[in-house]
Structure of YfkD family protein:
Amino acid sequence: MKRLVFFFAIMLLASSQPGTGEAAPQKTPHEKPAVSKVNIPPSVLNITKENTYPNSTQDLPFLQPSEFAKQLIDSSNTKIENPDLIHMMNESNIAKAPLAFGYRATIYLGHWALNYQSTETSPNWEYQKINTNYFDNRGANIPYQIHYVQEAQKTIRGGLTAKIPASDDVQKMMLLKATEKTNLPLSFETIIGGGTKKDQVYNIPANRLGYLHAYASAVNEKGKVTYGEVYLILKGNKRTLAVKNVTSQGIGAWIPVQDLLSFSFTASNTPK
């Protein structure tokens, strides 16, 4: 609905003012860094090559504002980082007209999640247990070697910790910020395929039971989202944005890490 309102408003104004529009540049994709900015413990292993379910990378694009969009963003009294709002402005233009002197208009573009400020980003390497491999080596005189084998396909989902307006937009901004801060392959949903294996060997001593637990990892992202009512203001050939009724709200989210599993091995005399 917001997209339709914005598009209709721009088309109405553009049709009343002759001239050529300003071309919006192409989106610049964000290339996922290879090196993480967080310390990954030795118990956490990468299973990208071994995963029998190929997860698609969730590379959200960092949009380069067009000249028109940048003018509007710079004129705003509140910081605007919402990719969807920037994308809509990139697709729009208002041509300058020589006879626009005295022309005035104020157009309501809707209530938007404008930006997200991160206050804390912390990984939980044991976010969700997804598998247990077990072997009873009691009665044996020599150690037994086991390794990780995923017994069933598992879907790991994250999400916001509370219901808030424009949740999809907020998730996108939180995902972008958490990825920027950690350089980890993050996604609100990831899958570990059944039959996925890892060659890492764990030795079960003689006369012991061995348990190898596998955990999916996730990032706990916390911060503040800012909302506001966005208005497009036209005065002659001057075009600006105004944001009114600005509010802020704290929010958190769990964002799973793709293809990184944490392993915990224990040997016991008795079943657990």
Remarks:
- DSSP finds four helices and nine strands in the chain.
- Residues 167-182 form the longest helix (16 residues).
- Strands lie at 44-46, 104-136, 144-146, 154-157, 159-160, 189-192, 202-204, 209-235, 238-268.
